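Repro:
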Amino acid sequence: MDPSKELSLLPDKSMVKPPARVSGAWTRGLVSAFQTLGLDVEALCDSIDIDIEVFLDATGRPPRDASGRLWRAAIAETGDRFLGLRAAQTWETRVDHLVYLIMVSAPTFGEGITTAVRYQELLAHGRVVTFGEHPVHVPLEINKVEHELPVLAQEIEYIAALFIKLFCFATDGKCELVEMSFEHPYRGNMELYEQIFQAPVKFGEPQTSMLLHRDSWDLRLAQSNHVLHDQLGGIAATLHSELQDNSFNDSVRERIKALLPKGDCSIESVAAALHMAPRTLQRRLQEEGTTFRALVDATRKSIVLDCVERQQAPDEIVRHAGYTNHRSFRRAMKRWNI
């Protein structure tokens, strides 16, 4: 592995944008996977009015919702319920991003994963991966960090399958998955899931998570280079600190999403959950170029779209979105053109 070649692919500081964006290295890999499956990605991009070059610039950060629209166009074109898994199968393992390189250059698998999780916002648009708790093994939880569009089951399955491929590459095939759990319900074709994850797969669980064998944590990595790992860690820390100030909106949206079903999503309750005064919350949002009302509306729309895609009952949708009456809900649906 040529460090100078890999470093040339690191994201330029000038490309760091506000939240709800992903790394161009991630979307470029997705485009390549779709093309390998025979999809005309350029035509798909034309159908959603997005230039394909947006997804091909490895140093760029395309909007998260742009990739969400590409996923929807691809699913509509193929009608494939398992497009995420099939795309992951064709994905070529590549170390073309700072977070990937930090992981594979660490002395051990555990150190690599821990460091990569610490700086994951450089690759994704929030805390997509977090550590869970287990008495014996190591659970990695995959979270839905959404913007306007809900994260699809196919996207979650694609992420999980890619992680397994990357883990196997880093450990020379020695990483052992104990169990794979998905939050969404079973959609058929268990044989395909077990073929990809090489472990028992569960559905309808409280949290999407990968349960890694504890012994995998101490595996020495085939591409280990502690000098390079330390140098990249310094670069990542600098870039990551620049992103931290831009994550406030996402934090507010997460609190709003948690409070809406409880019927108490006032600015006072959200501010209390963030341990700040309502006036401070308002000021911070103004500095970010938005308002509390706008974030509540955007979060509600995301929840409604997710519920509609899950074909949930109207009463359930109203409850999840935090509406107290159906009239307000119908007005919102009309405003959003849903």
